[in-house]
Design a protein that fits this description.
- With about 80 residues, this protein is an alpha+beta fold.
- It has one domain.
- Helix content is about 10%, strand content about 30%.
- It contains 1 helix and 8 strands, in the order ββββαββββ.
- A hairpin with an 8-residue loop joins β3 and β4.
């Protein structure tokens, strides 16, 4: 099941700690739960600010990433915080 991400929650250092989509029953979901979902292939999460979906992946350091392009709206760092 795909879940669209429209915002994030961050800690005081700016690290993503949860993914959000206001109005969805699953939102917010913690980073640890997202990592478990992605690694087990139970659920996928994506950002869609451009025509195509960009899926969120688990990085080696247990962080969440989309594209490495900091200018892209598909980057989690560029989403609004809730």
């Amino acid at each position: 099941m795909d879940r669209r991400v429209k915002a994030t929650q961050k800690d005081v250092k700016g690290n993503v700690i949860a993914l959000c989509n206001p109005g969805e029953s699953w939102s917010p979901v913690s980073k640890d739960a997202v990592l478990r979902d992605i690694k087990s292939a139970r659920r996928s999460y994506y950002v869609q600010e451009l025509p195509q979906k960009v899926y969120i992946r688990a990085a080696r350091d247990n962080t969440l990433q989309t594209t490495l392009d900091k200018a892209s709206k598909n980057n989690l760092d560029n989403l609004p915080t809730k």
